[in-house]
Specification:
six-stranded antiparallel sheet; Immunoglobulin-like; 2 domains
């Protein structure tokens, strides 16, 4: 079953809507026309990225960080300090920002989305908090603590903070492959009390939404955390026992006991996606498919999709999000369309990013509330409107998926860039999707199997162009479906009729 989620940079969205309305808006005040525009796409979920109360300390850091200042100047040359509102991933408190209308404003927009059949997804940041989170002063033992020599040796990875028990040295949140995020404080998953506190936060969030996108979900895994931070130690430096069980299964199970249909989506990398699925996540990011598409590696795409169907159905496919380059900048228009068709039609959940449907090319730093004016590509939105309508049809929503084999049409014809798949919902409909990811014209046969074979005539329609094709059913079963596609060409065929 295909699902889709639409990521919105909430603070930018509300800022722009407020400018259009000529008055400050909250989530409760979003114009109904905007809700209808989202519902008409159509999508299953809206991910409101960045609704939580921000960090004053994080804002100060974001307004003085040399690397960020350079990025602001590059993407928004006329930026002013008021445009910099800090990272939404340095969370000071899991309460909705007052500027967005607080919890009441969130409840209003959640209800309005639900009336159009759209669920709400919010962020959960398990690895770290803002460095001025209340727990720093009241519960410093929930964080990774160090010694003065740590801060002296690695000032970018540690900071000093005043707490109820005196001055402490606390680690910044980190991906082990990069320096620390200086506006954050690292939760210590070796401490059972820290795990309990984060589980309680997660349980509270779940009453406000229908799912969570868990930021860097692999970082709390026991082995990943141990490689980054080592064993837990007491004040004398002696090792202490830490929890052996993983954090995620118990926390997810606790939520599911109260909210059985709640969705857990993991931002995940390093080949740990299947492991996180085993620990309870419904969906995990598919960075492997994204990287292969950006590299224009058709063979890599085919190999990536040629796996367990159940696992394929639990991946989040995307060609852009707030961490990646904009699709319109990363791909030529022809490759953009091919990649979009593929990610919209393979199993799992497809993630679309606000601005993707307009062909925006500027990836905005998450610390900014305003983005630059851009000349939008008029080809992009009509293409996506057609694609999303097609991908919402019954075969993709209720059908069984399988990858189809292709072969050369004749010796020397090009076919290895072909990715073909079928969706079969029986009486509710059948579809075949063919994408030529090659930069050469492809001429090949796709083995369609018994679903389109038999006696009589088969009529197919391309959902993207409206073109209709008549094929002899016996020839389809014997030879397969012939396709002649230009470089990066696509076909999204539905079965209209199969007559004797």
């Amino acid at each position: 079953m295909k699902r889709s989620v639409y990521e919105i940079n909430t603070r930018v969205w509300i800022h722009e809507l407020s400018a259009l309305e000529g008055r400050p808006l909250t989530l409760a005040d979003v114009p109904q026309a905007e809700i209808e525009r989202i519902a008409d796409l159509p999508v299953d979920f809206v991910w409101l990225m960045g609704v939580w109360r921000g960090s004053p300390g994080g804002v100060a850091i974001a307004r003085s960080h040399g690397g960020l200042l350079e990025e602001y100047r590059r993407v928004l040359p006329d930026w002013v300090p008021e445009d910099v509102i800090g990272s939404p991933y340095a969370v000071a408190e899991y309460s909705v920002a007052p500027s967005l209308g607080g919890t009441k404003g969130l409840a209003v927009i959640r209800d309005r989305l639900a009336r159009r059949g759209i669920g709400l997804i919010l962020d959960f940041v398990p690895n770290h908090t803002a460095r001025d989170h209340a727990w720093i002063s009241t519960r410093p033992d929930l964080f990774v603590n160090g010694r003065p020599e740590d801060a002296a040796r690695e000032p970018g990875n540690w900071f000093e903070a005043e707490t109820f028990s005196g001055r402490r040295v606390i680690a910044h949140g980190r991906d082990p492959n990069f320096p620390g995020w200086t506006d954050t404080a690292q939760i210590d998953y070796r401490n059972p009390a820290a795990r309990e506190a984060l589980s309680n936060v997660l349980a509270a969030i779940c009453s406000l939404c229908d799912g969570v996108r868990c930021d860097m979900a692999m970082l709390p895994l026991n082995d990943v955390f141990a490689r980054t931070w080592g064993p837990r130690r007491d004040a004398s430096g002696a090792s202490l026992p830490g929890p052996r069980d993983e954090f995620w299964p118990q926390s997810i199970a606790a939520v599911r006991s109260a909210h059985p249909r709640f969705i857990f989506m993991a931002e995940a990398y390093w080949g740990l996606e299947e492991r996180l699925q085993e620990l309870g996540f419904d969906y995990t990011y598919d960075k492997g498919l994204y990287d292969a598409l950006v590299a224009n590696d058709a063979g890599g795409v085919a190999a990536h999709l040629d796996g367990d169907v159940a696992g394929q159905s639990r991946r989040v496919r995307f060609i852009e999000n707030h961490d990646e380059r904009r699709a319109a900048e990363a791909f030529s228009w022809e490759r953009h369309q091919a990649a979009a068709v593929l990610t919209a039609t393979v199993p799992g959940m497809t993630l679309y990013h606000e601005g993707q449907f307009d062909g925006r090319k500027t990836r905005l730093p998450v610390q900014l509330r305003r983005r630059p004016r851009e000349s939008l590509d008029p080809r992009v939105r009509p293409f996506y409107e057609t694609l999303l309508r097609a991908a919402s049809k019954a075969p993709f929503r209720a059908g069984e998926w399988r990858l189809l084999r292709a072969r050369e049409a004749w010796p020397g014809s090009h076919w290895r860039g072909c990715i073909a798949q079928s969706w079969d919902a029986g009486a509710e409909g059948r579809a075949i999707v063919i994408v030529n990811l090659s930069d050469q014209r492809g001429q090949f046969f796709v083995e369609v199997g018994s679903g389109f074979a038999g006696e009589g005539t088969v009529e197919l329609r391309d959902l993207l162009t409206g073109a209709r094709f008549l094929r002899d059913a016996k020839e389809l079963g014997r030879d397969g479906l012939y396709a002649d596609l230009p470089p990066q060409g696509t076909m999204m065929l539905e079965l209209l009729r199969h007559s004797a």
